[in-house]
Design brief:
CATH class of the largest domain: Alpha Beta
Helix content: 40-55%
Number of domains: 2
Number of helices: 16
CATH superfamily of the largest domain: P-loop containing nucleotide triphosphate hydrolases
Largest sheet: 5 strands, parallel
CATH architecture of the largest domain: 3-Layer(aba) Sandwich
Radius of gyration: 24 Å
Order of helices and strands: HHHEHEHEHHEHEHEEEHEHHHHHH
Distance between the termini: 57 Å
């Protein structure tokens, strides 16, 4: 596989400012601290461990990096019970059986020779981890290990070899080592703690909910059709919601969904009826929705309107 001109041209940024610009080119409105740790991760060749609530934009960072750097994005979505066969590699057993039958039919009786012939590159099925180690020099992929906290601790322990030496040992085949380490982004929603041994191999950043100004900039970038007044009101409303003791406060993803939904409804401002009818776009739990549809939700909206009016 040859490296394309696009890949060769997409150099890793040489400064924090360039990193911020790189993210901005991909439509990601970054804070300075995130751009700094991302720049260091790229320059030092270290995995970046991103922790934070669901919906704050952790996964999007990997997608933007792959897009702006012109790299292939390889995503490993973690879940309970994730094993080596699903994440790293497995052998193509049907093809191996066919080759064994053909060898026997051809009169081959040397079992060791047959064994060697079926454990080859041709029979190896590469899953995300192994695929991430197979990039060419100058074109290493972006490897997203998404929601690692959902995987079992045994799989987390397996990743130590991958993140330490960027290699995988296959007993029947040998050790496969990356010519150039992939750009590794690990995300977790903190449903459980990740062991220190893995964290020590990474640079760390907590991705928090954005400030009102940054969230407004995100809405303007991602939903450019949204009315300016509508964008200001819905961002202020979401910011207020996050101060309440809800079961699950809305993330940036929900803010963008709500902005898109209200834009499709041709709304230029939010009102109690609009909130009541569309709150299911923003909140996902019945108890939270019931609370906001009551007097507390109306009071919240009145505060938002009054604060914005005072600021104008």
């Amino acid at each position: 596989m040859q490296v394309s001109e696009k890949l060769l041209a997409a150099a890793v940024p040489h400064s924090i400012d360039q990193t911020e610009a790189l993210l901005a080119d991909g439509g990601y409105v970054s804070e300075r601290a995130l751009a700094t740790v991302l720049f260091l991760a790229l320059k030092m060749g270290r995995p970046l461990f991103l922790e934070g609530e669901a919906g704050v934009g952790k996964t999007e960072i990997a997608k933007v990096l792959a897009s702006t750097l012109g790299r292939k994005l390889i995503r490993l979505q973690c879940y309970e019970g994730l094993d080596i066969a699903s994440a790293v590699y497995e052998w193509n057993y049907p093809a191996q059986m066919i080759d064994i039958r053909l060898a026997e039919a051809a009169g081959e009786r040397d079992r060791e020779a047959i064994g060697r012939s079926i454990y080859t590159e041709r029979h190896l099925i590469r899953r995300p981890v192994l695929e991430a180690l197979s990039g060419e020099e100058g074109a290493a992929p972006v490897f997203l290990i998404d929601e690692l906290d959902r995987a079992d601790e045994a799989f987390e322990a397996f990743l130590l070899e991958v993140l330490s030496d960027f290699q995988v040992t296959i007993p029947e085949f040998g050790t496969i080592k990356a010519l150039e380490p992939p750009i590794v982004i690990i995300t977790t929603n903190r449903t459980r703690e990740i062991h220190d041994a893995l964290k020590r191999r990474c640079l760390y950043h907590w991705v928090d909910y954005p400030t009102a100004a940054r969230e407004l900039a995100i809405v303007e970038a991602k939903v450019p059709r949204a009315n300016g007044r509508l964008a200001r009101e819905l961002v202020a409303y979401v910011q207020k919601l996050r101060s309440l003791d809800l079961f699950k406060v809305p993330g940036i993803a929900e803010t963008l969904d709500w902005a898109s939904a209200l834009t499709e409804l041709d709304k230029v401002a939010i009102d109690p009826e609009t909130v009541s009818q569309t709150i299911g776009v923003l909140l996902k739990y019945h108890d939270d929705i019931a609370r906001i549809q009551g007097s507390e939700g109306r009071k919240l909206l009145d505060e938002v309107k009054a604060n914005l009016a005072a600021a104008e």
